[in-house]
Amino acid sequence: MSEAKKPNNAPLFIGLGAIVAIALAVVLAQRLMAPDRSQAASAPVAAKPAPNGPALVTDAERAAYIQSHVRVEPLLVDPDTQIGPEGTTVTIAGLLKVHGTVKNGGDKAIDKLILILNPVGSDGAVVGSYREDVSLNRRLGPNEERAFEFRIPDKKEFSGEYQHRVE
Known about the structure:
The protein is α+β, with helices and mostly antiparallel strands and about 170 residues long.
């Protein structure tokens, strides 16, 4: 009488174990990296001390500080250009270059300064609205300034005038 050979299930169990371990690692990583949702969204969050000045705590404090201490000077909106095949400067049709310097004239560091730019038509109506992080996703320290540049589409309605604010 011959004995029936039992199948070797070890590779199957090792594979399943590896899949379970990977799934647990992914879930654990997501939990560790997820923001803490235990605080109420409207409650002020205690700020960590900034390395180059104290941080702001509430949205109202931030807005007041920006209004009092942050300036964009100069703010220029010009036709966008590039160097052409013969080495001359050529205008790029359909694009405007927005450039300038954001300045923090206060005594606190501030993150993520968003410039809202609204080009205006000849009738005074806003013909577009564009948002750009002019702090370039980096903290702007007290009395620090930073140059920025970005592009927006050129609209035929644009009169050359614009409104802007920083948030």
